[in-house]
């Protein structure tokens, strides 16, 4: 019986940096749950990031090379605004869909 191998997911450095910042604000377990990544993976990213700040040389693939410019709170505010905008757009489209359905029947 052969087992299927799980494909290795590759995350961008920007995603890793944002994930680390989120983990610093809400905790590693909650951040991992929200982002759908393993807690151990997030822990590895955080550890590598902290290690590089102490003067340890890092590779180009390392998280520490990323400098996140937008704070998590700003991203959460933008996400909230976009959700409201989407809800509003759905309300605008609803009556149009009803009109189309009535004309078809």
UniProtKB/TrEMBL annotation:
Q: By what name is this protein known?
A: Transposase
Query: What Pfam families does the entry give?
Result: HTH_Tnp_1
A Gene Ontology BP annotation from the UniProt entry: DNA transposition
Can you provide one Gene Ontology molecular function annotated for this UniProt record? DNA binding
Top-level division of the source organism's lineage:
Bacteria
Annotated coiled-coil segments of the chain:
none
